[in-house]
Design brief:
By secondary structure, the protein is an alpha+beta fold. The chain has 24 helices and 11 strands. Strands 1, 2, 3, 4, 5, 6, 7, 8, 9, 10 and 11 form an 11-stranded antiparallel β-sheet that branches. The longest helix is centred in the middle third of the chain and has 18 residues. About 40% of the residues are buried. The N terminus is likely disordered.
């Protein structure tokens, strides 16, 4: 009995043989991954080990897709997934320099261990926690998403990317995952085929799925219609998450295997197979809430991926037919508005290490900058250690440069500052008392207690943004001063002002501070 049990492990090592991929390159938490299996899925995984034991995996995408199509539909053994996935993504034949160049472009010479702001392309970052990734794997997911955002700024809304990255990282290295996803995104045919690259494409897929349910499972579709349940009420989450989060991980991976080869057609088959498998149970529901709850419960218990996929492949469904449905449904989604994300993602690349800010704090500040500025990199214009401890030295260093970012550190280790939108005047102009300038994109900020940005408020109709006096500079004015530095750059003031309605930027809300370090950055 003990001997037979050993054959049920989904990650049991096979006999050593020459392979062109690393079967242990994944970054998963093995114990957590094992817990995602039950007896049914564990038995299926053991069976796949024997099915794949002597399979030769071609490196070329077309050869792999054609020769292994039917085998991939049955599921891929864990130890073969890295090689098959690399080949199907078209990245097995690409040079390793693709990843190296992307990493250097995104992070510069030093790759950060932690990243404060991670682009999600419209998905939820919490989804990463649903995968049994190791701590290093989670950090790899963050870095890959950053590199994709930096190298593909044209992508704003593509929620499937996050699950694609996380699933691949269970079996592949960070370098291979980036190369694979980059290649899928870069090739227009695979991007459209696999990733539903726009909200309009997703809505079109939901309309087509609804038609397929009506065609192949008419009784269920009529029941849904009577109860007021839309296909998108459950199908939208399935397609945007590639069946992750709703189904057990081994079942999701079984769908994912075929999806990488055949694209979104597999999502249709998986959805139809699930509904067909549970048709009688779904027809017994009496309300919309009961039907949706039943779908969620049955999906969470769908450990037998074989039954679901067999049901899906047992339905007559051709790519030509889905294309005809897409053409029919395209007018229905013509007016779908693409989601507008808050900003274009860009991670600043630092040419000099800041003496005040950590890398993650730089990321926070960059998220507050205007979009047209945030896609530029910082340039250290002034630091007293290099340029001198006087206001005149500061003004000479930043003369005619705009915009600028002022960073201050106090004797109590508080960090705050200001974003000045307009160029500071030449040194000889500082004698003009009452010289106010700047515009409404100016703001002050603090990282002293918690991160906070304070921008212009409509309560201040005047242009009290930047001010240069004989022996001081200020940001924020009107009724009060948000931030002021004296001629020696050693002492400063901070308080509430009508321009920004900010509290004092210090931790304890005191209005005076001793400045021990200051940096001023420009942008290039």
């Amino acid at each position: 009995m003990e001997s037979s049990r050993r054959h049920l492990s989904p990650v049991q090592s096979l006999s050593p043989r020459a392979r062109w991929w690393d079967a242990r390159a994944g970054q998963r938490d093995e114990a957590a991954y094992q817990r995602s299996f039950n007896d049914v899925s564990r038995t299926a995984a053991a069976r796949l080990q024997f099915v794949w034991a002597d399979v030769a995996v071609p490196r070329e995408r077309e050869a792999c897709a054609l020769q292994l199509k039917h085998l991939v539909r049955r599921g891929i053994s864990d130890q073969f997934r890295p090689g098959v996935w690399l080949a199907l993504s078209g990245s097995a034949t690409l040079d390793a320099s693709v990843y190296t160049a992307a990493r250097a472009n995104a992070f510069g010479p030093t790759v950060p261990d932690d990243i404060a702001l991670v682009p999600t392309f419209g998905a939820s970052l919490d989804a990463i926690g649903e995968y049994p990734l190791s701590g290093a794997g989670v950090k790899s997911a963050h870095r890959v998403l950053v590199m994709l955002a930096m190298l593909h700024p044209e992508i704003e809304h593509m929620p499937t990317l996050l699950d694609l990255v996380c699933a691949l990282l269970l079996f592949m290295s960070e370098a291979d995952v980036y190369t694979a996803v980059h290649n899928l995104v870069l090739r227009r045919d695979t991007a459209a085929k696999h990733l539903l690259p726009t909200q309009r494409a997703h809505e079109l897929a939901m309309a087509t799925l609804d038609d397929l349910i009506s065609w192949r499972l008419s009784a269920v579709h009529a029941h849904m219609k009577r109860l007021g349940v839309r296909t998108a009420d459950f199908g939208s989450h399935w397609f945007q998450r590639l069946f992750a989060g709703s189904f057990p991980l081994p079942t999701m991976l079984r769908v994912f295997d075929a999806f990488l080869n055949e694209g979104s057609k597999i999502l249709y088959r998986a959805a139809l197979g699930f509904i067909k498998l549970h048709k009688q149970r779904l027809l017994q529901t009496a309300t919309s809430n009961e039907l949706l709850a039943c779908i969620r419960q049955l999906a969470a218990q769908q450990h037998d991926a074989d039954d679901m996929m067999k049901a899906g492949f047992g339905l007559q469904l051709s790519r030509e037919h889905t294309k005809r449905l897409d053409v029919k449904n395209r007018p229905k989604v013509a007016n779908v508005v693409e989601p507008v994300l808050a900003r274009v993602y860009y991670r600043p690349r630092l040419s000099h290490k800041s003496c005040i800010l950590a890398d993650v704090q730089f990321e926070t500040l960059w998220s507050w900058l205007p979009s047209k500025v945030s896609i530029r990199d910082p340039e250290l214009l002034f630091t007293p250690l290099r340029d001198g401890y006087t206001l005149s030295a500061l003004l000479r260093a930043v003369e005619r440069r705009s915009p600028t970012l002022i960073v201050i550190k106090t004797s109590l280790d508080e960090v705050f500052g200001a974003y000045a939108s307009c160029a500071w005047p030449p040194v000889h102009d500082r004698a003009k008392n009452g010289y106010y300038f700047g515009d409404r994109s100016c703001f002050v900020w603090t990282l002293s207690l918690s991160a906070a940005k304070y921008g212009w408020t409509e309560q201040c109709p005047h242009s009290y943004f930047q001010h240069v006096g004989p022996r001081l500079i200020q940001v924020g004015g009107g009724d009060g001063i948000a931030l002021q530095l004296d001629d020696s750059l050693a002492r400063g003031l901070t308080g509430t002002c009508s321009s920004f309605l900010n509290p004092p930027l210090t931790r304890d809300k005191r209005e005076t501070f001793d400045c021990v370090a200051i940096e001023v950055y420009g942008f290039f």
